[in-house]
Amino acid sequence: MQTLDNAQKKFLLDSIRTIPDYPQPGILFYDITTLLNNQQAFTMVISHLKERYASLEIDYIAGIESRGFILGAALAYALGIGFVPIRKKGKLPHTTISEKYSLEYGFSEIEIHIDAFKNSNKPNPNVLLVDDLIATGGTAIAAVNLIKQAGAKCIESCFILNLKSLDGAENLQKLAPIYTLLDL
Ligand code: AMP
């Protein structure tokens, strides 16, 4: 399976804008809108992931609101499979399953439609989870739990950026394999 070489990794990292002290003091925010509006960078990411996942038997992509929707939907289209949104509480219109998780301060909650994977002809379909970045891993761990509760199996989680010092990838790895393009 092909991996990105160092020149490609540098190109992708350079395409991502960093904003200090956003959304609060002390946070360095990785703004992937500058990767998305860079035709070469966006194409490189989706083509690379398409190549990585084309040979695996993935039935759905689940994307985490909101940047996981953009990457996940583009990849689902490239692979010719369905896309399932995992959203912040109160945004999905049908019956949902929800999962609370802790943030640095306080709690957050994400949801999935109870029947999100039910149009598959498999009893326990394979799902690839996609988001732009993993930090503490709280959001992704909650998402993997939701996928399981909705009757599917997360066979891998994939992120463009991994903030290694926050140990999220290490914690998530206990639940499902993880693939990250850029480890910082
Ligand atoms: P976590 O649950 O701590 O792993 O946080 C991951 C979620 O928060 C992802 O959906 C990211 O898009 C977002 N996020 C967390 N930290 C950052 C950051 N420094 N820059 C950009 N997005 C972030």
Q: Average pLDDT, to the nearest integer?
A: 96
Instruction: Briefly note the structural class of the backbone.
Output: alpha/beta
Which ligands, by name, code or SMILES, are bound?
adenosine monophosphate
Instruction: State the major sheet.
Output: 7 strands, mixed
Portion of residues in beta strands equals: 25-35%
Strand order of the largest sheet: 5-6-4-3-7-8-9
- The helicity comes to 25-40%
Describe the overall structure.
It is a single chain. This protein is of the alpha/beta class and 184 residues long. Helices cover 32% and strands 32% of the residues. The chain has 6 helices and 9 strands. The chain has a 7-stranded mixed β-sheet with strand order 5-6-4-3-7-8-9, with helices on both faces. The chain has a two-stranded antiparallel ribbon with strand order 1-2. The mean pLDDT is 96. Bound molecules: adenosine monophosphate. Residues 27-30, 64, 67, 131-140, 168 line the site of adenosine monophosphate.
What keywords describe this structure?
binds adenosine monophosphate; alpha/beta; 32% strand; 6 helices; 184 residues; two-stranded antiparallel sheet; 9 strands
Question: What secondary-structure arrangement, pairings included, does this model have?
Answer:
Layout (H helix, E strand, L loop, with lengths): L5 H10 L1 E4 L7 E4 L1 H4 L2 H15 L6 E5 L2 H13 L2 E7 L7 E7 L4 E7 L12 E9 L3 H12 L3 E10 L5 H5 L5 E6 L1
Parallel strand pairs: 3-4, 3-7, 7-8, 8-9
Antiparallel strand pairs: 1-2, 4-6, 5-6
Helix pairs in contact: 3-4
Bound molecules: adenosine monophosphate (AMP).
The site of adenosine monophosphate (AMP) has 17 residues, from β2, β7 and α5.
